[in-house]
TrEMBL record:
Residues 24-258 form the G-protein coupled receptors family 1 profile domain. GO terms for cellular component: plasma membrane. Residues 319-336 have a biased composition (Polar residues). Keywords: Cell membrane, G-protein coupled receptor, Membrane, Receptor, Transducer, Transmembrane, Transmembrane helix. GO terms for molecular function: G protein-coupled receptor activity. It is a multi-pass membrane protein. This is G-protein coupled receptors family 1 profile domain-containing protein. InterPro entries: GPCR_Rhodpsn, GPCR_Rhodpsn_7TM, TAAR. It is found in: Cell membrane. It comes from Desmophyllum pertusum. It holds the Pfam family 7tm_1. Residues 311-336 are annotated as: Disordered.
Length: 336
């Protein structure tokens, strides 16, 4: 840690952010695993995005702080960054199809899930390992072309796609809400309005996540562009540190947005808190001495009720027996 040469405050701040990123995104994965209602196609894509954020907080930031000498770290960091961008694009595409083509989404969702999960991890792994073909020599022209493609395909194209997708989604939601107001059937109107409002809330959540991505990656774009044109003199020393803070912020924003804004996650978290509070209050009430006394008196009272009921039953049965004997004697006397 001392060999990093960084300010102590920077090291402590990034360490705290690293822990928060790992814990919050792990909670997202755990909620989806425990709650069956959360196991939807969109939420599985969110789990994939959360895993990439866990790698950002658990691998990328510690690599920056420790600065290991292994040659694997640069390839690993590149794969983590690209996987985060790819997973965010996959979630955006899933919402794009769900809002703009809702009738097709029901049968296209499983295919989107499988392809998105495979491509979100396979393509970053392949692209990050491509420099091994030319021994990662930065002086070669092919490496410069590789960096240009990395800048364009890995950052610029996702920027354009995410911005275009969310503009189209919000335009579609607004158009749908306007059309549903003129419907004559109140029942259909309510159902469709509920679906559209739910889509609008989910689109709002992911638009905030996408906006955080667009803002937080601006320092990386600037540094990468300066690296491509060999203008290291225009890169401020503090910008590299700021870039790691922005990446960490982007990875931390995702689970917070899911927890506080996404409807199904809010409901799952509320039910978890309600169950935990109920069990806590029940255990505290049982541990009180007054509760034990009331429980004991309640048991005694129930036992007394049982004895009284048994005695009443015995009295009734004895009366019935005596009544039947009297009736039989009367019958015999009459017969005589």
């Amino acid at each position: 840690m001392a060999g990093t040469g960084q300010n102590v405050y920077v090291v402590v701040s990034l360490s705290i952010l690293s822990v928060l990123i790992v814990v919050s995104n792990f909670c997202v994965c755990l909620l989806v695993y425990l709650k069956k209602a959360l196991r939807t196609n969109t939420n599985w894509l969110m789990v994939s995005l959360a895993v990439s954020d866990i790698l950002t907080g658990g691998v990328l930031l510690p690599v920056y702080l420790i600065e290991p000498t292994s040659i694997v770290t640069s390839y690993l960091v590149c794969m983590i960054l690209l996987s985060g961008v790819a997973n965010l694009c996959a979630v955006t595409y899933d919402r794009y199809v769900a809002i703009l083509k809702p009738l097709e989404y029901s049968y296209r969702a499983p295919k989107i899930l499988k392809r998105a999960l495979i491509l979100s991890w396979l393509l970053p792994a392949i692209y990050s390992l491509l420099p091994l073909c030319w021994n990662t020599d930065p002086t070669l022209k092919i490496h410069k072309a590789y960096m240009v493609c990395l800048q364009f395909i890995g950052i610029v194209v996702p920027y354009i796609f995410i911005t275009f997708a969310y503009v189209r989604m919000f335009m579609q939601v607004r158009r749908s809400l306007t059309m549903k107001r003129s419907m004559t059937s109140l029942r259909v109107h309510k159902n469709e309005r509920r679906r559209i409002s739910s889509d609008a809330k989910v689109a709002k959540v992911f638009s905030i996540v996408a906006s955080a991505f667009l803002l937080c990656w601006l320092p990386i774009i600037y540094i990468t562009t300066a690296d491509i044109i060999n203008r290291y003199d225009i890169i401020p020393d503090a910008l590299s540190i700021v870039s790691f803070f922005t990446i960490a912020t982007s990875s931390l924003v995702n689970p917070l947005m899911y927890a506080f804004l996404k409807p199904d996650f809010k409901m799952a978290i509320r039910t978890c808190f309600r169950k935990s509070t109920r069990t806590d209050t029940g255990s505290t009430i049982r541990s009180l001495p007054l509760a034990s006394l009331t429980v004991g008196t309640g048991r005694k009272y129930e036992e007394r009720l049982k004895t009284v009921r048994l005695s009443k039953k015995e009295d009734n049965s004895s009366k019935e027996n005596t009544g039947s004997m009297e009736n039989s004697s009367q019958c015999s006397a009459n017969c005589k």
